Amino acid sequence: MREALKLSQVHFSFPTPTGPLSVLAGVSFAVREGEWVSIVGPSGCGKTTLLRISAGLLFPQHGTVEVFGRPPRGQVAYMPQGETLLPWRTALGNILAAREADGRVDYQTRQEALALLAQFGLEKFAKAFPHELSGGMRQRVALLRTFFANRRVLLLDEPLGALDALTRAEVQDWLVDVWQSVRKTVVLVTHDVEEALVISDRVLTLTPRPARLAAAFPVELPRPRERAHSQVQALRAAILHALAEARQ
Ligand SMILES: Nc1ncnc2c1ncn2[C@@H]1O[C@H](COP(=O)(O)OP(=O)(O)OP(=O)(O)O)[C@@H](O)[C@H]1O
Ligand SMILES: [Mg+2]
Question: For residue 27, what is the domain's CATH number?
Fold first, then answer.
């Protein structure tokens, strides 16, 4: 299969008053077209920086980033960490915003967005504003908006980070349904190893800052996946061990 996203020896540091702060120290990996890769790493290790570089919003001092062999700008949909919905627009309006970057939104696009909301259980909320929605619903809308963008590669930065455990598990299962129906290449950053295992084809672990790739874990299990499944739990233990080892 084709490589959708490819990072080669990416080095990045932020300038600070006390000198450069090294955040990424030679990160290389490739994501195949249609693959879901999750990245887990300790707090502050450089995950967001890695996604912003993959989105073409920051430029590495050394190394290269390619999306289908070209610079990433205009080819990826990036969902930043935190609340990302426009508070003055309805759920439908927020979803349509994903297409406005490419020009005017026509009747057909609007129908497509309504169909997407209906397919994934949000039709009742099409006219609701973000403040009228629960946290879980807001993140579902924000995720659908990202899937609705005319982009083949999605970069998701801890999209479920603010949700309680129960809601989070529900939205994870829902997200697997969305992805299996609207198949795109996805890179997900998360703190939650179980989340990565329930969703992804492959899990990459990072070292503490400056981040390097520590290990890679293919997850060759059919979906939907049971969290309590012995293989999920064995992989979880192996990933937590790799994260702990990388801290040494
Ligand atoms: N604009 C900036 N200028 C200077 N330092 C920065 C800047 N943005 C981030 N940093 C630093 O770079 C490091 C990596 O930040 P980044 O946000 O990529 O980490 P992260 O892994 O996403 O963290 P978290 O788990 O908290 O989301 C941190 O030490 C952070 O303080
Ligand atoms: Mg971050």
Answer: 3.40.50.300
Chain-centre distance for alpha carbon 12:
20
- Domain extent, residue 62, equals 3-75+151-247
53, 160: one domain: yes
**Confidence class for position 235, pLDDT limits 50, 70, 90:** very high
Which-ligand-closest: CA of 45? 1
Domains in the chain: how many in total?
A: 2
Q: Which atom of ligand 1 is nearest to the CA of 21?
A: 5
Per residue in 129-182, pLDDT (tens digit) is 999 999 999 999 999 999 999 999 999 999 999 999 999 999 999 999 999 999
Record the tokens describing residue 211, joined without a space.
């981040």
3-class secondary-structure state, position 21 = strand
Alpha carbon distances (Å) from 74 to 57, 159, 204, 208: 11, 21, 25, 30
Which structure tokens are listed for 93? 């309006």
If one residue of 48, 51, 191, 243 were mutated to test the ligand 1 pocket, choosing by the most ligand atoms within 8 A of its CB, it would be 48
Same domain, 155 and 49: yes
Check: pTM over 0.85? Answer yes or no: yes
